[in-house]
Each structure stands twice: as structure tokens, then as C-alpha cells.
TrEMBL record:
UniProt-listed Pfam families: TPR_NAA35 (PF25789)
GO CC field: NatC complex
Protein name as annotated: NAA35-like TPR repeats domain-containing protein
InterPro entries xrefs: Naa35_N (IPR007244), TPR_NAA35 (IPR057982)
Native source species: Trypanosoma theileri
Family annotation (PANTHER family): GLUCOSE REPRESSIBLE PROTEIN MAK10, N-ALPHA-ACETYLTRANSFERASE 35, NATC AUXILIARY SUBUNIT
Boundaries of every NAA35-like TPR repeats domain copy: 291-626
């Protein structure tokens, strides 16, 4: 069969046979000797409907024929409620494209998208609306395809272009939409649809094509206007829009579009639900304005991680990447100082280590002091030439710059990763671990070879403590690495990648990364003033008496919210881990055996799954045996005493409830700035509810754990009631049959 857009389908097979006959080549069917052609044609691959590839033929008429014969009525007949229904159905079908489905499954079912000139002649109002939809589709595709946060199966690119009318600019389309809305004032609902389309297109245009801070701010403001319009009464409907099947050709559109993407019609989401999805989309787009005024890198990272955890639609994630990165994120990060500078500023302000920022800014006095100290401690000053001194100067500045560049790359990769879908984010985190291991090596090498972090030159009593706190670059790098490790385990739990037998080592490892972050932050914070000697420099030799990496440390402004949040998270993880161990010890759940029919041990599965952590230099990889060794044993010794077990469960439940109270205090803390609170509030509330659920489950367990008969009526299930990354072991009564 063959088809031209301007003709109907024609039968090619008879023409092919005629051509063969004219060429004296009669039609024959050949088969190998011993092959039964009838059996071959009856093979399951041909006759079984489940293996049918879907290739067939049928009468598919061209768009021109349907228009000429009137089977697709003139668009001029669409007025009033009928026009409103068509506009709302197109609006609903556009959402399918934003969700990742092919255009042929949705918007393109309205045939006039292929005949925009004809639509302009017949119905100028609908033409303005459809032209706005087509340009929104183009902007969406541009945003998605120019970023790298989507997987192949997540978005179907539209290869064959729509009738985009490239000579028509975005501003002209926006003006046409406003003019059409003014003409439709007698029908407020239609005017509202046209103005909303104008807002949506203007928002996408400014996000995708804008390059200035003002463009982003304006786009967010327009998105809020569009959200207000969606929330207005004029956008409400008492019933679903009525689809006139004469105007929507789901069957033919895939052939008209000449697409190779296998598609089938997808039912529209109810109008109210679709508009709710648009409201969420616009709310998320409007919230991107907060990124421009966030004071610290930590708050920006929290915002990005929180946005990714909400699982927004792909266009929202793509636009967030555009807002964050633009063309050169290392030079104009969020229209402010470069990311390199912000990293070094955070070291100075939050961790009290201004030396590296001053070296980066080429502070001559400090730079000379670092070089003189290095020469004095590791070289013979009498043999150093001026050329070697200049080389050491260049090496010192370049080492700080190189570390800052690599640290910035790690942050950029992390933010982009967090804006991928959850499965792709998990894979990219694993792929980033080798680079993070190399970054750890670079940071430690810079600390020890350039800034001599192992030679503080202080008294013997203070030396060990000083050495612990001096490798600032290494500890700062480790803080990010530990956070990435925590996210790796959180995503694995969220995606349910661990088997039930791997949950205990996974929970222990998660808790380990949280404790390590707290310990690392404690070391990274400035030491007490008694440990920081005064900066003294020999007037004659210009050699500092003590290491400047220690003496330049000063009073910092630690992120108390970050510390409190980490501590609360650790408390919840502690409670969940201990609850799992206690409930398993009473036979309520099996957390040790391999999955049914598994041919590999749980230990081998876990070690293989988490072998990616071997790329990390610090902390070293903890195998399954090490994780299980940390498991408290409630089946031996005094721990088997039911009374003690009940008391232990009560205390653990109190820890979980205490974590919930601490989270509540964080939400009401004056130190939590409004912008930061808005970004992480939903996550903190989910954590609080999870902590209370863990506490309630442990309280119920404590009440029955000393009664063997009562325990027989209970079972434990692994649930994620509030946050998909935070499991809860819930004690439930067995259902009676």
C-alpha cells in the first residue's frame, strides 16, 4: 500500500504483479527443499496475535480528501461552547506531550494543525490558539533537547516539523493571542484560554531564549499570572469537554504525520486533573525565581534536590537546568559570582578558612608567606633561584584554582543529576563516583604538598589535633562525597533496588554516611581560639613561624540548620535500623535470607551492587560482612530478655519521636530563612511524619514483644508511607482468613 498526503491510499500489489508480468518474470514463491510452505505460513510467529507486529492495511484516507468531502467540517462551524470544547481538549492533549508521549497520540489528532493556512481563513480565534500551541510545543522540544536530563524512553522527539511558520516571531504570536482574546471578550471563558496560552508561551520563551537575570524573573512572574488565571472561576468547568470525533482523527494521524514512532490514541485525563497538573507545573516554574536570591551553595543544592524529589515533568526539569547553567555556568552562575568564587567564599564564610580565597585572588602577602613556609620546611632556601620561586608562586595559585574548578564541576554534575528522573539520577551518581575519587586525591595532595597540612609547626600537645583540622580542601571535598553516598543509598531505597535481605546492611551504610558527615563537619569547623596560634612572620626571612593554613582560620558562621537536619536524619536512620534488627530477632520478618529462587547469596549481591563505592578513597568501601557485624544481636546474652528488649524498643521509639520534635523545631527556627524553608518544607514534614510512624511502630512492638502468644498474631511489613526514600517497619495484625 502507498499513500500521498494529497491522494487516497492505492493498491500497489496488483501494479507490482503487472510490472512483473510485463517484464516476463512471472510471480512465483520459492522455498527450500523439505520446507512445507503451508506449515511455514501457519507458524506461531505469523498466526499468533501476541506476536503480531501490528503490520496490516486498511482504508486510510488522506487529509485533503476528508476536508474536500466535508467529513472533517469547516473550522468556521466552531463557535461558542463547541469552540471552547475543542480548545480545552487540545489543552488536555498538550499535557500528554509534556508528560513524554508522542504528539501523534495527542495534539496532532486535531487535523487543522496540518493545515494552519486553511484554519486561519476559517476561524482566526482558533488559529491564534493553535499557533500558540504549536510554538509552545517547539519551545518545549527545544528546552528538552538542548539539555541532558532525559533518557531516550522519557521523551519522544518530533522529527517531522509542524507548520511552524518560522517567519512569524514569538512576539507576533503573543500579539495575535492578545488580539484574539480582546475580540472574544463576549465569551470570557474563551478569552481566558487565549490569555493563558499567551502567558504560557511567554514564560517558555523567556526561560528558553532569555539570557539575563531579568528575563528569568519576568518569566517566573508571568508563570504566576498564568497560575492565577488557572485558579480563577472563569477556567472552571461543570462538565468534561465534549469531543466531536469529526474534528479529532486519532486513527489517521500517525499516517498523515509519516512517523515511525509506534503510537496509539491515549485517553485524555479528566479536565480538572489536567488543570491541576498545569497548576503544579506553573508553581514549580515560578519557584525557580527563588534560586536567584538564595545566599549559599548549600541552599541552592537543597532546592535542586528537593525539586528533583518532587518528580516534576521533564520540561520543568529541563528549564531548571537552563536557569542554573545557561551558556557558561562557571563564569556566571545564577547571574552572580562565578561558581569557583562561590565555593571559595563558602570555605571562608561558613568554615572560617579565608586563606584559599585570598590565594585565588592573589593576595601577595599571604601568597609569599605560604611559599616561604613551604621552602623553609621542605627545601634548602639557599639553593632556591628566583625562577623556582616564581614557579612555586604559579603552582600555589594554580593548585587552588584547579581544585576550585574540579569542585565546581562536581557541583554542576550533581545538580544536573538531581534534575534527571530518579532512575537516571541513580545511574549517573554511580557513574560520577570515579571522578569524585580523583577529586579526593587532588584535594588531599593540594593540602599536603602545597599547604603542608601535616606540618603545623605547633607544640607537640596541639600537633595531632591541628593535623586533623588542617586538610580543609580534603574535608570540604569529603563532605560532598559523603552527601553523594547518602543520596545513592536513598535513591536505591526509593527505587526499591535492594532485596529484603539487603535492607539491614543498606540501612547501616546509610546511617554510617550520615554520622560521617556530622563528624566531618565538626572537623571542618574552625578549631577553638586556643588552638589557633597568632600569625607571626620573621621580619628578616619573611618565613611564618606557624603554618598559615592554621593561623588564618577565623570565626565562621556555621550552617546550624544543616547540622540540625543531619542530626535529625541520623536519629531517624538509627531508629529504623534498630527497629529492623529487633523485629527480625522476634521472627516477625526475614531480613537475612536471599530472595526466592535466587542462586546468589545476599552477601555477593550486596557487595556487587555497591562495588561502585570502591572508587571512593575516603571512607573506604564497607563490605556486607562489615555492615552485618555492626548489627546488634538480640538473640544472645542479656538481649534475649523480653523485658530488656521491650525497654530497648521504648528508648528507640523515643529517639524517633525526639527526631520528629527536632524537625518541628527546625521548621520554626528563626535561622531557617523563608526561601530555604519553602524549598525543603515538604521534605522535612515528610521526615517528621516518618519519624512519628517509626516511633508508633516501636511503641506497639514494645507492648507485645514480651508475649510470645501475642506476637504470633502480628507481622511486620516494609512500608514507605510518607517519603519513598525512608522505609518504615510497620507492625500490623495478621489478617484472618
Amino acid at each position: 500500500m502507498a499513500c500521498d498526503l494529497n491522494e487516497t491510499w492505492t493498491d500497489c500489489f496488483s501494479e507490482f504483479q503487472s510490472l512483473l508480468a510485463a517484464a516476463a518474470a512471472p510471480w512465483r514463491c520459492f522455498a527450500l527443499a523439505g520446507v512445507n510452505k503451508e506449515a511455514m505460513l501457519s507458524a506461531p510467529e505469523l498466526m499468533d496475535a501476541k506476536t503480531d507486529p501490528g503490520c496490516g492495511y486498511g482504508p486510510i484516507r488522506s487529509l485533503n480528501a476528508l476536508l474536500q468531502e466535508g467529513e472533517i467540517p469547516s473550522a468556521a462551524t466552531l463557535q461558542g461552547e463547541a469552540l471552547l470544547d475543542v480548545m480545552d481538549i487540545i489543552h488536555q492533549r498538550e499535557l500528554q506531550y509534556l508528560q513524554g508521549y508522542a504528539l501523534t497520540s495527542g495534539v496532532l489528532a486535531f487535523p487543522y494543525f496540518f493545515r494552519m493556512n486553511l484554519l486561519q481563513e476559517q476561524n482566526s480565534t482558533l488559529h491564534a490558539y493553535c499557533r500558540g500551541v504549536a510554538r509552545c510545543v517547539e519551545m518545549t522540544m527545544r528546552a528538552v533537547m538542548t539539555t541532558r536530563v532525559h533518557s531516550d524512553e522519557e521523551f519522544v522527539p518530533w522529527i517531522k516539523e509542524l507548520d511552524r511558520e518560522e517567519h512569524i516571531t514569538d512576539d507576533q504570536i503573543l500579539c495575535e493571542l492578545e488580539e484574539a482574546a480582546c475580540k472574544a471578550e463576549s465569551f470570557p471563558a474563551i478569552a481566558a484560554r487565549l490569555r493563558w496560552r499567551k502567558h504560557f508561551l511567554a514564560t517558555l520563551k523567556l526561560f528558553v531564549t532569555g539570557s539575563k537575570k531579568l528575563d528569568t524573573e519576568t518569566a517566573c512572574d508571568i508563570a504566576k499570572e498564568g497560575l492565577d488565571l488557572l485558579n480563577s472561576t472563569v477556567y472552571e468547568r461543570e462538565s468534561e469537554p465534549v469531543q466531536d470525533n469529526r474534528f479529532f482523527r486519532d486513527t489517521e494521524v500517525a499516517y498523515w504525520a509519516s512517523t515511525f514512532t509506534p503510537t496509539k490514541p491515549i485517553p485524555c485525563m479528566p479536565f480538572k486533573e489536567a488543570m491541576q497538573m498545569y497548576k503544579i507545573l506553573l508553581t514549580q516554574l515560578a519557584s525557580l525565581k527563588e534560586l536567584l536570591s538564595m545566599p549559599s551553595l548549600q541552599s541552592i543544592m537543597e532546592f535542586v534536590e528537593s525539586l528533583g524529589a518532587q518528580k516534576p515533568l521533564l520540561p520543568v526539569r529541563s528549564i531548571a537546568v537552563i536557569v542554573l547553567f545557561r551558556n557558561d555556568p562557571s563564569e556566571s552562575f545564577l547571574h552572580g559570582p562565578s561558581l569557583l568564587h562561590r565555593v571559595l567564599e563558602e570555605l571562608a564564610a561558613e568554615h572560617g578558612a579565608p586563606l584559599y580565597l585570598k590565594i585565588f585572588d592573589a593576595d601577595e602577602e599571604l601568597l609569599e608567606g605560604v611559599i616561604k613556609y613551604r621552602i623553609h620546611k621542605t627545601m634548602d632556601p639557599l639553593k632556591i633561584t628566583p625562577e623556582q620561586t616564581m614557579y612555586l608562586r604559579h603552582q600555589t595559585v594554580e593548585s587552588v584554582r584547579r581544585w576550585a574548578v574540579e569542585m565546581s564541576k562536581a557541583y554542576l554534575i550533581h545538580m544536573e543529576t538531581m534534575l534527571c528522573n530518579r532512575g537516571l539520577a541513580h545511574r549517573r551518581i554511580m557513574n560520577a563516583l570515579p571522578q569524585l575519587g580523583s577529586l579526593q586525591e587532588m584535594a588531599y595532595s593540594t593540602d599536603t604538598s602545597i599547604f603542608l597540612a601535616t606540618i603545623p609547626a605547633v607544640s607537640a600537645e596541639m600537633e595531632q589535633e591541628a593535623i586533623k583540622r588542617m586538610p580543609v580542601l580534603a574535608m570540604y571535598t569529603n563532605q560532598h562525597v559523603l552527601r553523594v553516598m547518602e543520596l545513592l543509598f536513598s535513591l536505591s531505597l526509593e527505587l526499591d533496588l535492594f532485596t529484603q535481605g539487603e535492607l539491614i546492611p543498606a540501612l547501616w551504610y546509610l546511617n554510617f554516611t550520615q554520622r560521617a558527615q556530622l563528624e566531618n563537619l565538626a572537623l571542618l569547623s574552625p578549631p577553638s581560639s586556643s588552638m589557633i596560634p597568632e600569625t607571626r612572620i620573621n621580619r628578616r626571612t619573611k618565613v611564618p613561624l606557624y603554618n598559615l593554613a592554621l593561623t588564618t582560620r577565623n570565626v565562621a558562621h556555621p550552617d546550624t540548620i544543616r547540622l540540625a537536619l543531619l542530626e535529625a536524619t541520623r536519629m531517624i536512620a538509627d531508629a529504623v535500623f534498630v527497629a529492623a534488627c529487633m523485629m527480625e530477632s522476634r521472627g516477625l520478618i526475614d531480613l537475612s535470607s536471599a530472595a526466592k529462587h535466587s542462586l546468589v547469596t545476599v552477601e555477593s549481591i550486596f557487595n556487587h551492587r555497591m562495588s561502585c563505592l570502591k572508587h571512593i578513597r575516603s571512607p573506604p568501601f564497607k563490605p556486607y560482612a562489615r555492615c552485618i557485624a555492626a548489627k546488634p544481636d538480640f538473640s544472645a546474652g542479656d538481649n534475649t530478655n523480653p523485658v530488656k528488649l521491650s525497654l530497648y524498643a521504648q528508648k528507640t521509639g523515643e529517639i524517633a519521636v525526639g527526631a520528629a520534635e527536632r524537625l518541628k523545631q527546625i521548621l520554626h527556627s528563626k535561622d531557617l530563612l523563608p526561601l530555604r524553608k519553602k524549598a525543603i518544607q515538604s521534605h522535612l514534614e515528610g521526615m517528621e511524619r516518618t519519624a512519628r510512624a517509626v516511633g508508633a511502630s516501636l511503641a506497639a512492638f514494645a507492648a507485645v514483644c514480651d508475649d510470645e502468644e501475642a506476637l504470633k498474631g502480628y507481622t511486620v511489613t516494609v512500608e514507605r508511607p510518607f517519603l519513598p526514600s525512608m522505609p518504615c517497619f510497620t507492625l500490623r495484625k495478621k489478617e484472618t482468613k
